[in-house]
Amino acid sequence: MTRGSQRERDRERAAARKPNSKNGGDGLTPEQRRERDKKALEEKNAKKAAQASGSTSTDAKGKDAKK
After folding, report:
1. DSSP conformation class of 67
2. Cβ atoms of 58 and 65 closer than 8 Å
3. Among residues 18, 21, 33, 61, which is most buried (max CB within 10 A)?
4. pTM score of the predicted model
5. Max CA-CA distance within the chain?
6. pLDDT band at 16, cuts 50/70/90?
7. Radius of gyration (Cα) for the chain, nearest Å?
8. CA distances to 16, 18, 55, 60 from 24, in Å
9. 23 φ, ψ (degrees, to nearest 5)
10. Do residues 59 and 65 touch, judged by C-beta distance below 8 A?
11. DSSP labels for 4-60?
C-alpha cells in the first residue's frame, strides 16, 4: 500500500475535473431533452430526404454520374 495516498489524491483530482451534474449540465428535464432530440432528429431526416430527392444524378460518393 505504498501508493494508497496517491490513489486517493488522483481520485479527488479526477472528481474535481468532472462536472457535478449527472445530466451533462444542460439543465433540461427529461421531457425537454426528448423534445429537443426529437426536433433535431426530424430536421436531420428532413435534410437527408431533401438531399436524396434533389440529388438523383449523383452516385453513392456524391459525384456526378456520367454514363
Report:
1. -
2. yes
3. 33
4. 0.43
5. 72
6. confident
7. 24
8. 15, 10, 38, 37
9. -90, 10
10. yes
11. HHHHHHHHHHHHHHS-S-TTTT----HHHHHHHHHHHHHHHHHHHHHHHHH-TTB-T
Q: What share of the chain is helix, strand, coil (3-state, %, to 5)?
A: 60, 5, 40
The label of the residue with cell 488522483 reads 10
Q: What is the 3-state secondary structure (H, E, C) of 50-64?
A: HHHHHCCCECCCCCE
Beta bridge partners of 58: 64
Tell me the per-residue pLDDT of 21-50, one tens digit each, with 9 for 90 and over.
Answer: 554 567 889 999 999 999 999 999 999 999
Taking the CB of residue 28, how many other CB atoms lie within 10 A of it? 14
Q: What does the CA dihedral 16, 17, 22, 23 come to, rounded to 10 degrees?
A: 150
Residue type, 47: K
Q: What three-state secondary structure class fits 15? A: helix
